[in-house]
Each structure stands twice: as C-alpha cells, then as structure tokens.
C-alpha cells in the first residue's frame, strides 16, 4: 500500500470546485515552496508545549475540585462549571479562531492566545470566589480555543510527506499525555503545595510556561503566506455568531445533564439544530457573494475529511469519558487519594504517548487500516479493564486495571494522530486552520456527549448496585462509542480499497486500448 494510494500527502492537494488553491510555504513554511525551514522542528516544540498547556487544563482540575469546594465554599453546580465552562468556551472558538488564523496570521493568533491564556491562568489562581473562578475559567477556555487550531494548521504549513505524519504523531502524543497525565500532575501539585491552597498552583504553573512559549513563538513560528488585512468579508461575523450559538446550545444540555433534571433540557437540541441549519444556509449565501465563510462547507465533500471528523467525534465520546468515570470510581469508590488515582491511570498515558509517536511514522505506510487496528485494541483494552475490576474487587482493583489500561493506551496512540493526518491529508494548507478548528470542535462535542451519556448510566447504576458495577457499565458504554467509531473506520478503509480497484481497472482498460491501437 503506497502513501499516494491511501491518502495524498501533497500539502497543496486541490480541493473540490470552489476551494482555495494551495498556499505557498513562505518564510518558515516550506510546505509549498520545496525549501523546508531548518527551524521547523524547534517551532513544532513550541506548538506542542502550548498545546500541552491548554489541553492539560481540561483534565488537571478534576482532582482539585474537593480543595476548590472547601477553599471557595463552592456548590456542586459551580464546581461543574469550573470544569465544563472551560470545555464549553474552548469549543466555541475553535472554528472561528482557525479561520482567523488562516486569514490574519497563525503566529499572531497563537501569540494572542498565549497572552490571554497566561493572564486568565493568573486570574484563576487569584480567585476569591467561585463566581470569579468560573469567569476566569471561561476566559481561559476562550484563550485555549484561540491557540489549539493554530497548532494543526502550522503543522500543515511547516511539514509535508512523511515528516508531516511524524509531526502529527508527536502532537498525538501530546494530546494523549495531557489528557491522561492531568490527574497525576494535579495530585502531585496538591500534595506538594497542600490541600488548602494547592489548587491555586494548578493554574499558576501555566505562568512560566506561557511566558516562555510567548517569547519562543515570536522568534520561531513562521508567518502565514495567505494572511492579509482582516475585513468583514474575511471574518464573517454573522457566521461566527450563528456557529457559536449553535455549538453552545448543542453542548449545554449535555454539560448540565446532572444539574438539570427532567427531559425539557433536551428541547435545546431542537434549537441547536435550527441555529446550525441557519448557519449552513448563511454560509452558502455568504460564499455566493464572493466573501469568505468562517467554515468552508466544501471540506465535507472530501470523504477523508468527513469520515475522519465523524470518527474522532465518536472516539472522543468514548475516550474522554474513560477518565471521567475512572476518577470517580477510584477516588469515591475505592477511596484513593488524588495522587494514587492519577498513578493508576498512568499506564494509559504511557501507552498512548509511546504508540502515538510510532503511529505518526507508520500512517503514511498503512493509512486507515492503522486506525482500524488502534480502535480494535482500545475496545479490547477497555473490555479487559471492566473484567479486571469485576474479578479483583476492593482496593486491589487499581493494580488489576494497569495492564488492560496500558493495552488500551497503546491502541489510543494509533488513533488520534494517524486520524488527524489522514483527515487533513487532502485539505489545502490555506484552509488548514479552519479545517483543524472544525475537527477539534467535533472532539469537544464528542467529549461532552460521551461524559453526559456515560455519566448518566454510571450514576444510575451506582445508586442500585454500587461503584464497581457502575464502573463496569460505564466502561461498556465507552466501548460502544469506540466500536461505532471502528465501524466508520472500516467503512472508510473499504471505500478507499474500492476506489483503488476502480482506478486500477480504468488504467488497465486504457493500457489495453493503447496496445490494441
């Protein structure tokens, strides 16, 4: 299987009719001018540290919630918003921020996001009330949403071919590490700084990281060749508002699933559908005027992009919910400390980080079947984790979970980075920010849906049969999301094989006619 047959790796691969042409590499780019920038790997490390910092704050706060509740006298709903307010605001800006990076410059957007993220982190650490903390967390999430889409877009811009797969592999390792290491790092910080004020240092640790990243981003990140003056026609403010309102309304009932009782909250999904339908209609009309829509709808006519976007939404619904129910089970069910709970989940982080680097190197050789294998391994590993908890009851369950969680982590490393490489493989570099932002918005939507669905089943089973039974059931629901993602991957791999066979028959037919002539 050759790389070109599985997925085009040319960064300037043309899109469907109406798509913008490929961008030139420009200074520091090298993606389109054939002259790779010698600083591209250093620039990548800056992007990875920035990505690690923003994604870490999704999970690190979970182990600090008891300390925050005591220190700020926060209620359950306010604690929920400390977690969900960040995730929600993070997801809102991903697509608009990606579009603004494409239009105005990715380095500028990255530096703006880093500045705001560092300031918001300081505000979180200095919070004197739960309302202050929630507000600062929302601001922190918005800043993270500015940063994240620039990373995948800069990888598209700075690398090509097999190097791009390696770079996305390193980004995949960063995603896996930041998600899984959050609980143990949070536990270590609280253990070192004390339970009363330790939660503040979870936010203060971002200050030196953000400052260093900001300086290095200015020095090392490349300019965006397609950047220009940011006008109303390039920004599409109505599209931004419709999309933001639609995503917010879609995620809100899932985020508030445990706080808002009764079925009426799900009526918001109808409103979300209406807003998103209006968004699609507006984008088509805006594009027909010759302006630049915030989301280029032609991207979804690229099968690799559509399949990869759906796959990662489903996978994140299962992937993120694992840590949600695992932390609850270990700390509340088995009475583990925050540090011990984090250590129990470390094998998944180790496996994911190890396999992601390998997956980034292998994706150009194996393509979508590599993702199929990764999803299969994740499903088996999670099933083994549920079996381990069932067979080893009590506090020893944490030790029994280690090996299957390591196995699941190895599979996860073969999913996230390779899927990102394949999904963006046919997207022109000039649209990389918008495409990457849309892809990551799907991840946030999937994570919120997965946590709500798995959490609902988990709490319902816990009330009747206890923590262990609830954890088993929660993991099985997570596995169900992973299995549906696996079906999407198998279908895409099969369609690619069919296309290659059709192309081969056409070539054979042309050669036969030429020989007869």
Care to describe what's here?
Helices cover 77% and strands 0% of the residues. It is mostly helical. Helix 12 packs parallel to helix 20 (432-465) and helix 14 runs antiparallel to helix 19 (416-423). The protein starts with a helix and ends with a helix.
CATH homologous group name of the largest domain: MFS general substrate transporter like domains
Radius of gyration: 23 Å
CATH class of the largest domain reads Mainly Alpha
Mean pLDDT: 80
User: Main beta sheet, described?
Assistant: none
- With helices defined by DSSP (H or I, 4 residues minimum), what is the helix count? 21
Helix proportion range: over 70%
Protein structure class: mainly alpha
Order of helices and strands: HHHHHHHHHHHHHHHHHHHHH
The CATH level-2 architecture of the largest domain is identified as Up-down Bundle
| CATH fold-level topology of the largest domain | Growth Hormone, Chain: A
Summarize this structure briefly.
The chain has 517 residues and is mainly α. The protein contains 21 helices and no strands.
Provide key terms for this protein.
mainly alpha, Growth Hormone, Chain: A, 77% helix, globular
């Amino acid at each position: 299987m050759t790389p070109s047959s599985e997925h085009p790796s040319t960064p300037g691969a043309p899109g469907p009719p109406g798509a913008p042409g490929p961008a030139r590499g420009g200074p520091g780019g090298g993606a389109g001018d054939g002259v790779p920038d010698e600083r591209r790997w250093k620039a990548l490390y800056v992007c990875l540290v920035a990505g690690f910092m923003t994604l870490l704050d999704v999970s690190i706060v979970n182990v600090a919630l008891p300390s925050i509740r005591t220190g700020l006298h926060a209620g359950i709903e306010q604690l929920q918003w400390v977690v969900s307010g960040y995730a929600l605001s993070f997801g809102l800006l991903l697509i608009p921020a990606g579009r603004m990076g494409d239009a105005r410059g990715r380095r500028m957007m990255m530096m703006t996001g880093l500045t705001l993220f560092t300031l918001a982190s300081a505000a979180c650490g200095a919070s004197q009330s739960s309302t202050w903390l929630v507000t600062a967390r929302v601001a922190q999430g918005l800043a993270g949403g500015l940063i994240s889409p620039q990373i995948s877009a800069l990888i598209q811009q700075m690398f090509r071919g097999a190097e791009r797969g390696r770079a996305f592999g390193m980004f995949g390792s960063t995603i896996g590490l930041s998600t899984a290491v959050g609980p143990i790092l949070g536990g270590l910080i609280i253990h070192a700084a004390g339970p009363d004020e330790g939660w503040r240092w979870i936010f203060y640790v971002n200050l030196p990281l953000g400052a260093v990243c900001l300086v290095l981003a200015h020095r090392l990140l490349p300019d965006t060749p397609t950047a220009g003056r940011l006008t109303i026609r390039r920004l599409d403010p109505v599209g931004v508002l419709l999309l933001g309102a639609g995503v917010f309304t879609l995620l809100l009932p899932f985020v508030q699933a445990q706080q808002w009782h009764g079925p009426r909250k799900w009526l918001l999904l109808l409103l979300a559908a209406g807003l998103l339908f209006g968004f699609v209609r507006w984008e088509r009309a805006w594009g027909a005027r010759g302006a630049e829509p915030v989301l280029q709808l032609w991207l979804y006519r690229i099968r690799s992009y559509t399949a990869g976007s759906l796959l990662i939404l489903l996978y994140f619904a299962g992937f993120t919910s694992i840590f949600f129910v695992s932390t609850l089970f270990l700390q509340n069910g088995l009475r583990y400390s925050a540090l011990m709970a984090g250590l129990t989940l470390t094998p998944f982080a180790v496996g994911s980080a190890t396999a992601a680097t390998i997956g980034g190197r292998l994706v150009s050789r194996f393509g979508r079947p590599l993702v199929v294998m990764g999803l299969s391994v994740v499903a088996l590993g999670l099933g083994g984790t549920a079996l381990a908890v069932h067979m080893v009851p009590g506090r020893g369950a944490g030790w029994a979970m280690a090996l299957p969680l390591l196995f699941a982590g190895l599979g996860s490393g073969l999913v996230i980075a390779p899927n990102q490489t394949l999904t963006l493989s046919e997207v022109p570099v000039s649209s990389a920010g918008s495409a990457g932002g849309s892809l990551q918005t799907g991840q946030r939507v999937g994570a919120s849906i997965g946590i709500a669905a798995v959490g609902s089943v988990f709490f319902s089973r816990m009330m009747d049969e206890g923590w262990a039974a609830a954890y088993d059931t929660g993991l099985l629901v997570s596995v169900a999301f992973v299995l549906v993602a696996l079906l999407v991957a198998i279908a895409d791999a099969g369609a690619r094989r069919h296309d290659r066979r059709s192309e081969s028959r056409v070539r054979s037919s042309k050669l036969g006619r030429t020989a007869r002539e």
